Structures
1.
Amino acid sequence: MIATCVTVYVLPEYVEQFIEATIENHRGSVMEPENLRFDVLRAKSDPCRFTLYEVYRTEAGAAAHKETAHYKKWKDTVAEWMAKPREGVAHDVIAPLDPEVWKTERKYG
Amino acid sequence: MIATCVTVYVLPEYVEQFIEATIENHRGSVMEPENLRFDVLRAKSDPCRFTLYEVYRTEAGAAAHKETAHYKKWKDTVAEWMAKPREGVAHDVIAPLDPEVWKTERKYG
């Protein structure tokens, strides 16, 4: 598994549009066969700071995400809305180790 | 729901002990009634950098975690092993919104 925490700072005037575009990306991402989680979070201390928590079963699955139409659309759409470049930190998983307990239930599509 | 990302930098000589103590904390935490997730992650770019991803159904549940024996033991045990103070960023959840899809399956206890 690979778990990536992405920190995004959005320009205040684009926050609502960013949320809308990111929910759309979330809906597409959780439908990917190798995706286990795609959580969208907003910092309580700063309404312009967001975390995306993206977990894939394999490195290949994480790489495949970047080739999807929903990711490419999101990346191009939000590019001009960011206050600074987003930062992703990729992790190995220590616990829990069973990929099945990571899976977001598919409620879309 | 409240989702907290905690970043921890551990002194190299204590990394293995930190992992052991944190897995024990994970096992206790996922048994808490309000806990939805307690993921333990290690950064691929830095073997001394860890992320704890802690999700609780309510603020009260997140507060109750800090009163548990397993948390207090972990906090005291790892205090001297950290290269710098740990940093937690608390978030509101934007997606997914159903708490049921967040839950770590209880495999312990």
2.
Amino acid sequence: MSEALNPSWIAVDWGTTHMRAYAMDVSGAVMGRAGGPGMSALAAGQMGSDFEASLLEAVAVWLDTARASDPMVVVMCGMVGSRQGWHEAGYLPVPQTLSGLGEALAQVPVRDARLAAFIVPGISQIDPYDVMRGEETQLAGYAAQMGSAGSTPGGRVCLPGTHAKWARVQAGAITHFSTAMTGELFDLLTEHSILAHSVADEVMDAEAFSDSVRAAFHDPACLTEALFSVRAEGLLTGQDGARARGRISGLLIGAELAGAKLTTGEEITLIGTPELCRAYSDALAAVGFSAQALDGEAMVLRGLSEVYAQLVRRNMVVA
Amino acid sequence: MSEALNPSWIAVDWGTTHMRAYAMDVSGAVMGRAGGPGMSALAAGQMGSDFEASLLEAVAVWLDTARASDPMVVVMCGMVGSRQGWHEAGYLPVPQTLSGLGEALAQVPVRDARLAAFIVPGISQIDPYDVMRGEETQLAGYAAQMGSAGSTPGGRVCLPGTHAKWARVQAGAITHFSTAMTGELFDLLTEHSILAHSVADEVMDAEAFSDSVRAAFHDPACLTEALFSVRAEGLLTGQDGARARGRISGLLIGAELAGAKLTTGEEITLIGTPELCRAYSDALAAVGFSAQALDGEAMVLRGLSEVYAQLVRRNMVVA
């Protein structure tokens, strides 16, 4: 249970596996944190599929001053807005101005009148088909941060993860994006494939990683053959689980970088956890690219703060 | 239980998921068939990990005339010869003459003196690391069939499956090979990934298949992005499970064909089940290559027959 606070509003990043709630003060600083189950546990019917009860359980102590006449604003992003989530928030098509998300929020019907809950929509693309949900808020945070530093947000942004997103940002708008299944494939291969016998639990050989990034980046067609070769090397030379883990990760990320069709000298912005950003920075460095890393949680909060500010400006809520 | 027969010898194709035994007459024709559990069930300890008991249960009725002084010859290939199998049969390195497998058989220690059991070794490669076990026998069958038709076996041979093998054969020897994890990735993606929600059970859209083969063949770096796009298309346009299944299969096979680095005009020989050979023939045709298909079971039996003939010639057994 989180401590009693009187936040100005509540920011919520509600993904597939976790819900993270933040008590925000009037300046946009984090006063407190709480967490709960992700969408998949709730959508699967645990806790009666009751997203509202799950949220209230996490943030009840932050609602001391909230009442029906002055409800607590909750701004959420992520899979909570999917069809299997709490309330469907739809998709905005590309090109999409990242500062405009606050104008397309879905208001969530609630039973507890102390809440005024909103969900940020996802972004969709038709050619080729693609969708994002959650990353658009991180991209809005990135655009806001660039803008307040006096730059026009632009360039290639990579958000590594289970489904890694690569977005082209031009003049503050997302114009095109793609999704590589790198993280999900890594999990499937290391946990459920024949390669599961070959990999170490946690340790990863850095040289095997870099070598494999280069191999797959320069010849992505070799990907699945090179993956099987990891197994064969284990059989023929004895296991080195850290080397196997480094190779599988490096091959998948190297193929992802090849798919991103980077231009020589292009600067890449990474948004994610420090660990993932470090792995992707190392991978990019192995093939001659440099990257700046931004913390994923900070970008979510910045993006949700932008959306909240838009709600206030539009007089939809009282700050 | 199989019917009582007096075969000349017994051929066994013992893979990961199935054991297939054949009662062979003196001319090399199949007199009868029997089956049993594959290596993985036995290696996992079911039936007491007793490969010999499992074989005897399947072929007992074929052993009426076998005795310790004149045992029944059983020639086996496949994962039964792996470290987790009945008896390890080792690997022969490339380049390896396909007519020479019979000289490197592992004789299996047996409790039942009515049996004289042998396992064909696998083939290994160091640069890059790769292994095959089972396919070498099909390749030996292919080489024997080519030889008896007056041709020198040569060219590219593809053996599609869970782990698809691509072998270069020159003057009757396997000189190089690679393994694409196409079948295993297809199963992982359609059963355990986010794409599992999108695919139909059995039906496959032929046009989506061919289009996707071409897309991945010409740009294999797009593979994992194109896979996620299947999911996104389902979300945005409504499901068409047959189209999704065709796209996933086509993308994986197209990327495999790109990895095979085919030369324009190259003739490919396919060895496998009729269904897999048809899918690969269609895929090759979609990118401008033609293929001849050989039945996988026929090639195993032809290869095992060659090995048996070598045993007889070497007087290791009496025909």
